[in-house]
Amino acid sequence: MKGNKNPFWAAVNKTLAVIAATLIMALILAPAAWAADTYKILHEFTGGADGSDPTAGLIFDAAGNLYGTAKYGGSWGQGTVFELTPNSDGSWTETVLYNFSGGDDGGQPFAGVTFDRAGNLYGTTYTGGAGDGTVFELTRDPDGSWTETVLHSFTGSDGRAPVAGVIFGRAGSLYGTTTWGGTAGLGTVFELTPNSDGTWTEKVLHSFTGGKGGSYPDRGSLVFDAAGNLYGAAADGGQAGCNAFEPGCGVIYELTPNSKGTWREKVLYLFSGEKDGYVPEATLVFDKAGNLYGSTWLGGSHGAGNVFELVLNADGSWKHRVLHQFNGGSQGPMRGVILRAGKIYGTKGDGGSHGFGYVFELVPNADGSWTQKVLHQFTGEAAAYPWAVPIFDAAGNLYGTASEGGPNGAGAVFEITP
């Protein structure tokens, strides 16, 4: 009633006004508490001409286009290299740059691609070539098409079945690993050196022999330190007794060049298969202080892998520390993590609320512990099983691949905007 001076209703109205004002101020002062990350699918693979099963990560070019590989699909079902170009309306257009046939040109690109300074793309195929996989180059032609050149075909004795990608060294040589092959058949680290006539010469820098030295360097690419030493992870070997599938627990190793042109392996850490986990097959990453970060695919406190740090001590030794133990699902990050602004980001290929994996952020606490924040849970409808490490653009948006899901079950490329 107009002019009502009832003290009860006056008190109620005053209380409601205070609550409303408090909520408004909370939203203004603390947007991070209520703002949600925005998830968007950029491309859903059909499993046909555009490819299927993108298990590797992406890279950007200077113009903001994304590049990656699909392990299967394409014209011959042996995989593709693709480009995603952003449009003015916010959509993205996929272009297949190359279709692998599975023959001399290679097949099944498990790893992603990398650029040289001229804008050419380089990568590996699991099969094809001489029979045991290839290292290839894609060169852009004047008409916008791309031409593939096989730089090296593996024959088994020099390596077999490369699953990881390649990286460039200071002198323009390419470095990578093969899962099998070599002297003992347990994998290799190789170098490809360009010649003046356009050919490339392969040299095996290290053949894994098992035991304490490790074996089967699988999905993780190599990484250089500032001094030119190589670092990587071997999924097997080291300490024995993890399980029947992986009889060894895996190692982190360093390869150091000497004056004779050979390389010496040093094992930095041997996994025990207990709380430290096992199968460390992911790519390692350095922070500014020279410490290494990586992940295990299996094991740990809950059996679902973990994220770890190797801290370089003053005497040259390394101290291992588990930063986060995953709980739920059966597998940890397969290909590693990425660092940004003091935080750690990655994907877990399974588990989460729906069992199809998720994208996570690890935030450091004052006491040295780390807290996990889930940025996106995959439902299996639009995408599922994100195995690859995501990447950031300059604006802080995350981009990655999911190997399955979507209406065709063939995987997708996604973006997460904070």
H/E element order: HEEEEEEEEEEEEEEEEEEEEEEEEEEEE
Tell me about the largest β-sheet.
Answer: 4 strands, antiparallel
Apparent shape: globular
Structural class: mainly beta
| Radius of gyration, taken over Cα atoms and rounded to an integer in Å | 24 Å
- Give the oligomeric state of the chains in this entry, treating copies of one chain as homo and distinct chains as hetero: single chain
Q: Which percent band covers the strand fraction?
A: 35-45%
**Number of separate strands:** 28
Mean pLDDT level? 91
* End-to-end separation: 48 Å
Number of helices: 1
* Share in helix: under 10%
Sheet with the most strands: spatial strand order: 1-28-27-26
User: Uncertain runs with pLDDT below 50, 5 residues or more?
Assistant: 1-35
Task: Describe this protein with a few key phrases.
418 residues, mainly beta, 4-stranded antiparallel sheet, 1 helix, disordered N terminus
Report on the architecture of this protein.
The structure is a single chain. The protein is mainly beta. It has a domain at about 100-285. It is built from one helix and 28 strands. It has one helix spanning about 5-30; strands at about 40-45, 60, 65-70, 80-85, 90-100, 115, 120-125, 135-140, 145-155, 165-170, 175-180, 190-195, 200-205, 225, 230-235, 250-255, 265-270, 285, 290-295, 305-310, 320-325, 335-340, 345-350, 360-365, 370-375, 390, 400, 410-415. The strands form seven sheets. The protein has a four-stranded antiparallel sheet with strand order 1-28-27-26, with no helix packed on it. Strands 2-3-4-5 form a four-stranded antiparallel sheet, with no helix packed on it. Strands 6-7-8-9 form a four-stranded antiparallel sheet, with no helix packed on it. The longest helix is centred in the first third of the chain and has 23 residues, at about 5-30. It is globular, with a radius of gyration of 24 Å. About 45% of the residues are buried. Mean pLDDT is about 90; it is low at about 1-35.
